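B., you asked whether I could sanity-check this one before it goes into the benchmark set. Here's the sequence:
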Amino acid sequence: MRTKTILRMALFGLLVAAACCAPAQAAVFEPTWESLCAREMPEWLQDAKFGIYTHWGVYSVPAYQTEWYPKRMYDEKSPIYKHHVATYGDPKEFGYRKFVPLFKAEKYDPAKWAKLMKATGAKYAGMAVVHHDGFLLWDSDVNRWNAKNMGPKRDCYGEYVQALRAEGLKTIATFHHIRTFNWYLPAAGGFGGRIDAAKAQAIREKGWDLTDPQYGDLYWNVLAGGKYEDFLTEWQAKVREVIDKYRPDLLWFDGGLFRDEPTSEQVALKLLAYYHNRAAQWGKPVDVLNKLPTNGIFNFPRDYGVLTFEEGRDRLAWVDRPWIDDMKISYRGWCYIQGQTYKTANEVIDGLIDRVARGGGLLFNFSPKADGTVPEEQKKVMLEMGDWLKTNGEAIYATRPWKVVGEGDETKLRARSWKFINCDSSDIRFTRSKDAKTLYAIVLGYPKNGKLRIWTLSNQTRIAEGGIKSVTLIDGERPVTWRRNGMGLYLEMPSGVDQNDLAYAFRINVNGKLDMSR
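And here's what the prediction gave me:
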């Protein structure tokens, strides 16, 4: 690791120590799970339902197959290695670090991005400020491999935060680099995993830059002279730096060794307590998303933060705590890749509706090109989502689950992850206003012949103290002809309704308050 970087880390450590010794407000939260789990989800996040972030960085330059390109370009068994050799040359001659000057972000316009986020209907937005590759998208004093110092020569995240706040949106920062130590090594999986001596020697003999100590502060591995405890110290310093510089409203961490041994758990506890105590000083409610990795164990205790499921993986139909799914706009690759195909607005909106009805929310990911432009196909999807939410958002934002999630064949939605490509008018979801005075029924397709029966809302179901008062199609504020009997609530679609809409939201006004007994 370069002397300059070591001095910078030492200076940062002195500054942190000085801050710890300086007079400060008494801590609101202690670095214990008991203290941290006593928090409640902020109401703004319960109301938001929908946020957007992005995977964008040096890995967007090759734009080939996956954001894991940096690791797999060194794996001789991977097709990405073969592509890299054919396109850029042997990794001995063209290591990953050589992509950094090519990541220029020359067309990156954070104000345009922020306006697009606003137009999508998102209530918070941000970016993956550092991915597994370890390159930072903010102006950092902790590590030299950052966007202000190299590549774009701009504080990409800082400029975006400023633009988002100008649009009235809250911000999120997601961190994916807890696994970076040894991650680049083809014979290891990251997380500080060990590598046997024979494989280590074979890698050294390749002459790749990832084993060169002068680049050890990017590649972070034992073969470049790195130590896991030093990596963990710098990891914490990076996260604290983002907290202090940008004051994000929401943090998200990829899967990591947060509770696997006492040292890493204490680091995690101190960091999380630091974030919440800083937020208390700022006077704003913040939260942390608590991911369920592939090992089936949440990063943090289940009672802490907002449970988060990647693409809905392993999520049950009903979760008894606040939760969010994160989902990519494409079918392949979280970052922009060549030949990418995208989910339709209909699929994304149907999924958002289903999640909100179940008490959850959606963190959506888009993938710009390396130069900072957003592909038109992605813009189209996001703007269609925004148009629907602009009209029908009353049934989504600031709502709460009703006693019944909905009706329809749920089996067609569920595998290991949730899919929303086959929804139609038989799929209906319910939400309600916070004051429990209004019920919303959202139909995920145009009903045949314009006639709809909602069997859940028959007069055998106690909907409210005094029954239904009126039904309105929210789009256009059009009154709906309705009747109710023992077989269901029957609705007739108003004339002139677009039969190709994404979903149809009905406002059901009731007499008195909604019945919430299950």
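One thing to flag: The chain is about 30% helix and 20% strand. Otherwise nothing jumped out at me.
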